[in-house]
């Protein structure tokens, strides 16, 4: 089973974009040209209906493993008996990733239909970027080996919880970026011992900008809380 992108990211290498995958049975109306992606499905994270409960959660990352917020994820799937609702919007819904790039879909395990293994459809689009149309798959499905569209890179991690299933999947979109880094720490002008990130106790003494200070109140130093700026925390000594 492929590792989640969040695990691959720990090795420090660039991420591989989630592959494109489309079986052509997407009945959604083609998007008109325009500045905004306007999906036809309702905005919702819960797709109600009878069947085995399923949640799919995860993150959307760019190529440098930066979390992507406000990514549109448009899911659609077959119902419990393997049928798509092409009249109304049953088992269709779109949502947006949050500030951490996270999403969660609450639905049911899609039913099987002839010629295909079990799958979820999804379109993913970061703001101002091309749409990725792809599918997600379930491990251990007998038809995975005979489905010509199946791609093991699109396998979700699935566990059984009670009578339901909890799946996770991380998308990687073709969005360049720089890896998240810790905020830079600026050395104090003129040197000094005060440092961002250090936890100071009342009574500690530092130097900053050529002056000495005594800590009045325990705290963790942050950028912007340089001793001359926060008389509640530091007193000239
Ligand atoms: Fe399908």
TrEMBL record:
Region entry Disordered: which residue ranges?
Answer: 1-43
Family named by the database record = Belongs to the intradiol ring-cleavage dioxygenase family.
- Could you tell me which SMART domains the record lists for this protein? ChtBD3 (SM00495)
What keywords tag this UniProt record? Dioxygenase, Hydrolase, Oxidoreductase
Looking at the Swiss-Prot or TrEMBL record, what is one Pfam family this protein matches?
CBM_5_12
The cross-references to Gene3D superfamilies, in alphabetical order and at most eight, read: Aromatic compound dioxygenase (2.60.130.10), Carbohydrate-binding module superfamily 5/12 (2.10.10.20)
The protein's name is: Protocatechuate 3,4-dioxygenase beta subunit
**Ranges of residues in domain Chitin-binding type-3:** 191-237
Q: Name one GO biological process term.
A: carbohydrate metabolic process
Q: Which organism is it from?
A: Nonomuraea rubra
- Molecular function terms in GO for this entry? carbohydrate binding; ferric iron binding; hydrolase activity, hydrolyzing O-glycosyl compounds; oxidoreductase activity, acting on single donors with incorporation of molecular oxygen, incorporation of two atoms of oxygen
Entry superkingdom: Bacteria
Q: Which GO terms describe its cellular component?
A: extracellular region
